[in-house]
Amino acid sequence: MRRNNMLTVLESTGSVLDCAWKMVADSGLFVFDAVLSYEQTAGRGQYGRSWISPRGNVYAAVRLPSVAPFDNMEAALALSCCIAATLSDFGFDTKIKWTNDLVIDGGKVAGILLEQKGDKLIAGFGINVMSCPDSGALRQDAALPATCLYNINPQAAANLTPETIVENLVDRLKTLDLRKFAGSWRTEALSRLLWLHEAVCLDVDGISIRGVLAGIDEHGGLMLATPEGIVNHMRGTLRKV
């Protein structure tokens, strides 16, 4: 294990989220500190799905503050803006797929999983740098194929390391003007929002709702234009029609 004043780097761990929570319990992980592991043996994603974690990609967790815009439903989108900005620094034009995925050239390249215990919030995130799951390893209802930075731009990706990416993100987070960002994250998210003004389908509890993606509200909710008017949703799986 290596540690500086903002990032702990592990060779291997079961789950970076579990490691981060243990550090919080031991008072060893402060706001915007991060944990990075080269591999995970028991990583988890959304809805308890297993997280394939070969070496070469980013598997990390960062502690978020209990203040806007990280204190409510918009936390995933606010963090997505920061990760997208980090990837843009390295030359990758990144879109945000509501609510917690990052997309480049039509493929999912990163995802976020938020976990909260009491007033403490940790975001686990993965970024496909050198590899990604093949189509056979994805669930059948996956909205997008997976991709990785190396597939998109081999030369740029070859010059990156997981540490470089996470250090850039942590630097960005630690220098945020949180009061200003609380008022600007929505504009930033809208500028990167995948499928904005396009026909989409939102799956909620087995029900499919079709409409046009009209935007996101101030709480991070999806704004869907339907024949009955604008309907806001705080959860669900979004896909292109």
TrEMBL record:
Gene Ontology molecular function, alphabetical: biotin--[biotin carboxyl-carrier protein] ligase activity
Keyword set, alphabetical order: Ligase
Keyword hit for Chaperone: no
Segments forming domain BPL/LPL catalytic: 1-181
Name of the top EC class for this enzyme: ligase
GO cellular component: cytoplasm
InterPro entries: aa-tRNA-synth_II/BPL/LPL, Biotin_CoA_COase_ligase, BPL_LPL_catalytic
SUPFAM superfamilies: Class II aaRS and biotin synthetases
Pfam families: BPL_LplA_LipB
Enzyme Commission number: 6.3.4.15
Signal peptide residue numbers: none
PROSITE patterns named among the record's database cross-references: BPL_LPL_CATALYTIC
Stored PANTHER family: BIOTIN PROTEIN LIGASE (PTHR12835), BIOTIN--PROTEIN LIGASE (PTHR12835:SF5)
Record-given protein name: Biotin--[acetyl-CoA-carboxylase] ligase
